[in-house]
Amino acid sequence: MADEPLAFESGQFQGLARVFPLPGLVMFPHVMQALHIFEPRYKALLEDALASDRLITMATYAQVPGEVDPTRPPLEPIACLCRVATHQRTAEGTYNVLLLGVRRLRLGNEMPAVRPFRVFEAEILEDEEPDYPEEASATLQHDLLAAFRRTLPDIPQAQEQLDQLLGSDVSLGMLADIVAYSIDLEPRWKLLLLAEPSVVRRTRLLVEALVARSRRQPRPFPPPFSRN
């Protein structure tokens, strides 16, 4: 198992994104996602990342009408840049990986296919922080937490995990991303939230989404392990 410092500065990203697309998964900054990587092209992607900047971009397949190129299906234009936190090579030659989301990315032109995996030009979308008094941010955070609590299962484990999260130094933008990733929302909602750089608009949109699904049965918190 290899562990690396998780600190990230935007200047570490050189503008080319190694893209690992998955159906149905919308990754967010500030959260961790476990993956089991076994396809040769994605093993090559991981090995390339480990040999340089340890950055992988998690993208989502776009749902578009009509026929698409099965070798290069369309992707949603907003993705999540991730840093490899830990990785372990198994006896079978596959990898168990833990990724940390670090920034939103806007994907641009796709580069020529010279590698087994897809590479895109991309730019970082930095958070737009609120410019009004701290009390207003606190009110937004209260509204978000109230809506989030209503969606959690009535079991001690979920509430304890939320209390642990709130006991740490969490900004409004970080909290919104963690909640958006953790809760069972339709992909269209998650993609809207991922695409919104404004912390205030993102939080208000998330509260709206939580209220809209508050009577649905939630999935387990935190989300389960994912496989590629």
Give an account of the 3D structure.
This protein is α+β, with helices and mostly antiparallel strands. It has six helices and eight strands. It has helices spanning 40-50, 134-151, 156-166, 172-182, 187-194, 199-212; strands at residues 2-3, 16-22, 32-37, 55-60, 78-89, 95-110, 118-125, 226-227. Helix 2 runs parallel beside helix 4, helix 2 runs parallel beside helix 6 (199-212) and helix 5 (187-194) runs antiparallel to helix 6 (199-212).
Mean pLDDT: 85
CATH architectural group of the largest domain: Roll
How many strands? 8
**What is the ordering of alpha helices and beta strands?**
EEEHEEEEHHHHHE
SS strand fraction: 25-35%
- Write down the CATH class of the largest domain: Mainly Beta
Q: What is the radius of gyration computed over CA atoms, rounded to a whole number of angstroms?
A: 18 Å
What proportion of the residues is helical, as a percent range?
25-40%
Query: How does the major sheet shape up?
Result: 5 strands, mixed, barrel
Class based on secondary structure composition and strand pairing: alpha+beta
Low-confidence stretches: none
The tally of domains stands at 2
CATH superfamily of the largest domain: LON domain-like
What is the CATH fold-level name of the largest domain? Archaeosine Trna-guanine Transglycosylase, Chain: A, domain 4
Number of helices: 6
The best one-word shape is globular
Distance between the termini: 20 Å
Strand order in the sheet with the most strands: 2-4-5-6-7
